[in-house]
Amino acid sequence: MEYNFEEIEKKWQKFWNDNKIYKTDIDISKPKFYVLDMFPYPSGSGLHVGHPLGYIASDIYSRYKRMKGFNVLHPMGFDAFGLPAEQFAIQTGQHPAITTKQNINRYRNQLDKMGFCYDWDREVQTSDPKYYLWTQWAFLNMFESFYNKSQESARPIRELIQHFEQFGTKGVNAAQTEELQFTADEWNSKSDKEKQEVLMNYRIAYLGITMVNWCPELGTVLANDEVINGLSERGGHPVEQKLMKQWCLRVSAYSQRLLDGLNTIEWTESLKESQRNWIGRSEGAEMVFDVLNSNSKIQVFTTRPDTIFGVTFMVLAPESDYVPLVTTPEQQKEVEKYIETVKHKTERDRMIEKKVTGVFTGSYAINPFNGTKIPIWISDYVLAGYGTGAIMAVPGHDSRDHAFAKHFNLPIIPLIEGCDVTNESFDAKEGIMINSGFLNGLSVTEAIQTANKYIEDNNLGHIKVNYRLRDAIFSRQRYWGEPFPVYYENEMPSPLPFAQLPLELPEVDKFLPTETGEPPLARAKKWNYMGFPLETSTMPGFAGSSAYFLRYQDPKNENALVSKEANDYWRNVDLYIGGTEHATGHLIYSRFWNKFLFDTGFSCEDEPFKKLINQGMIQGRSNFVYRINNDDNCRFVSYGLKENYDTTPLHVDVNIVENDILDIEAFKKWRPEFEKAEFILENGKYFCGYAVEKMGKRYHNVVNPDDVVKKYGADTLRLYEMFLGPLEASKPWDTAGIEGVHRFLKKTWRLFITSEGNLKITDEEPTPAELKILHRTIKKTEEDIERFSLNTAVSSFMICVNDLTELKCSKRKILEPLLIILAPFAPHICEELWFFLGRSHSVTTAQWVDFDPKYLIENIIQYPVSFNGKMRYKLEMPADATIEAIEQAVLENHQSQKWIENKEIKKIIVVPKKIINVVVSG
RNA sequence: GCCCGGAUGGUGGAAUGGUAGACACGCAGGACUUAAAAUCCUGUAGCCAUUGCGGCUGUGCGGGUUCAAGUCCCGCUCCGGGUACCA
């Protein structure tokens, strides 16, 4: 009887499902382990073979941990709000909820075929009102909170109000949009509306007027991480800067904690580094410059206060509030003209042009260190959103300032001994200071410290830490997202009472903005609360994915996001697997979101994801055929012969190519125009060329996991995806090796079952050699799973089965444990064979077998003996031989080795169980 | 520009500083078969010797540390990813 994977897999998937084998509940008698996959956005094109890579790895790990005695939480769900469904709705009028539901069903169907051990009873869908109630709830909590920097924690906004009532802003140390100052009396005499406006300055979820990335094509604003190279992440449309009133989350308040937290979690260095760069902490000084003949003062931020003697001009951002203060009447026209041109440039234009532009304001500032007069310019290379929107320019030691100085012919002063700054600035923080007054002779590091001290001592400014991390813009002018639980009274936002949640998405006639440019929700008929209009924008994609890992812990709870009990037990994610593309989006936002919930007592851990593994991308492997140009017969030439002709390469569907050999008949049917195609073959075959490209429809290189499952079975797909290479590496999908993995499963099958379908298994006692094979494999499998080296784990199974086949070993005492350790990788076939062995319960819930070290030690160890690093012969020694005995044996052996007799042994190095190295003279 | 990775046979890839190339694909040869498929066996880094055991060279390039380097250190080259006027 042959290995009939199709039947077996269907049977056991049904068995697991019917018996709810993977249903998980709190069990305080067992240690918990939480394994999470980044849940997918269910796109219309379904899963391709790259998606399950991480899911397979996490599935193997979950199954392994469960067998090791852990209570494993391994849930799955769908990130169901998103732009593609909405775009589709705009085109077709089909409600996004319907499209989304269809896509989810398709995904679910595909996932189910791969034999994952998810507890589907815990499924969450972010577009489900029962789920997004808790997204809205969290938003309201953020609205009702501010960040107390002294306590390093979010606190209820009423604490701040009480403080204002008693002391005004005195003693307030809170994260804020701008610095405010008022007394208690002033606060108490403010109108309600005025008070609300002030509080917006502090709330963690606040309505703010900020420069946003506006994408006219999509008709919505985008967060920084949704803009790539000045184009929208979705669709690649140009993005411009625009001042708009938007909901924002005060993520920046958590900058330092987000940075510090990285040291407490097990993520890859590169991912932590990305986050550190994104947070962008920089220490420097904020310094005040007086403006000549004016009362104005300009504050700048610099990380190089040591270079102050090299400041030859100052630059303001075009949007800076300082601009009107310092522009002289003579320069007014020029400045206005410049600002106008800058406004019309998109982010992308700026990047592509990279032209140096700017305009002089007519004013001068005074260098506070030496009193020199420095011209104040305006240029778009200075960003309004960072620091103070104004810089002191040091062309000698900053490349951007240098380019500007060159262009406008401004002086450049070298400040470091021995450097030439005529053609290039010297940006490195090293060397000895010159031309710098009292800083002369100091090293750069010393000079920075000395200058900082001088600034503080002389009241010229203060030391300041700046972060690049911006507050998250939280409004989207779209339909398919969570509505804000907010209504407007007197034009001031008020939160909906919790009892009114969830605020469900209303029906609209079209999914487009209104004629007046309002978001789609403005089309809804009854979009108000007690007569007051409701907010018409919706939340962004990351809202629903920011706390989903907590909801899985208690998905059906109607009274809380997660009960205290469930959260105390499941805590945070022990292992999170997903792609690197979320490094600066989801993984920042959800850390922020969780920290907020931690502060407010709803999450018991400060960091949501303890260990994170990034699975690599699976790229497509495209195939090409070569059509001969200007050929009447539509001929194609095989890859190896194409140099003899003038050809055009054409992408060909990889599903009609096997091992780069084209299925000619299938090709003729693929496209009508190829029906009469002729082929110039090599050895009777047509070989295709190949290239590694992104997996996508346009390259005809999409491989659907369903097809692979159909052909080889889920167990083969699982093993093969792991076997392909290291989990974290990017690699192309190449079916060339899949036969080998499939062959391994067939071999395993044959260890148990004869070709007639009889059970081969005997109850004979295993030999030491067989036990050695088994225990070696158990040990290796454990080690490999623990370090996520799943490709080598698969290899070790192959070696094991090959060895057992060679020994014709079909002994129960060997094969039963083998099934247990193979079960996480290939659960279906193991269940079937386990069943044949007469075992009743599921092998996937069996207890893991521990290896017995006594079968691992070799009785005799063969030591390679090397002389001066060169291998000479092998010396056999008992495993328990002492180092002295080994040395003695080498010396004795030395005498019988003629070729070395006139050389003197200087040293004998014995590496236990590894090698003996003999150092000889000459 | 900056920050991270990476470079090993024809291919994907193994190697806690200790016999480089595990395992798999592919290829070649063989067995079984009327034949094919399936299955099994042998060989497979390169070069030389293969009716001798074997020898030499080899982990992108150039140096170094070490008895011993794919692995550690210094200097390059190329490839991949992230990020960018962040002062």
Label this structure with key terms.
single chain; 922 residues; alpha+beta; seven-stranded mixed beta sheet; six-stranded mixed beta sheet; globular; RNA-binding
The proportion of residues forming helix, as a percent range, comes to 25-40%
Low-confidence stretches: none
Query: What is the number of strand segments?
Result: 35
Radius of gyration, in Å, reads 34 Å
- Helix-and-strand structural type: alpha+beta
Mean pLDDT equals 89
What is the fold's blueprint, element by element?
Blueprint: H1 5-18, E1 32-37, H2 52-67, E2 71-73, H3 83-92, H4 96-112, H5 129-143, E3 145-148, E4 153-156, H6 157-167, H7 184-188, H8 192-200, E5 205-215, E6 220-222, E7 227-228, E8 231-232, E9 240-249, H9 255-261, H10 269-279, E10 282-291, E11 297-302, E12 313-316, H11 322-326, H12 332-343, H13 347-353, E13 359-366, E14 373-378, E15 390-393, H14 399-408, H15 444-457, E16 461-466, E17 472-473, E18 486-489, E19 492-495, E20 528-529, E21 532-533, H16 541-545, H17 548-551, H18 564-570, E22 573-578, H19 586-599, E23 609-614, E24 618-628, E25 635-637, E26 647-652, E27 657-658, E28 661-662, H20 664-670, E29 678-680, E30 689-693, H21 705-712, H22 714-723, E31 731-732, H23 738-752, H24 768-786, H25 790-806, H26 812-822, H27 827-836, E32 860-867, E33 870-878, H28 883-896, E34 905-911, E35 915-920
Parallel strand pairs: 1-2, 1-22, 12-14, 22-23, 24-31, 25-29, 32-35
Antiparallel strand pairs: 3-4, 5-6, 5-9, 7-8, 9-17, 10-11, 10-13, 10-16, 12-15, 13-14, 18-19, 20-21, 24-25, 24-26, 24-30, 27-28, 32-33, 34-35
Helix pairs in contact: 1-27, 3-4, 21-22, 22-23, 23-25, 24-25, 24-26, 26-27
The chain binds one RNA strand of 87 nucleotides through α10, β11, β15, α14 and β31.
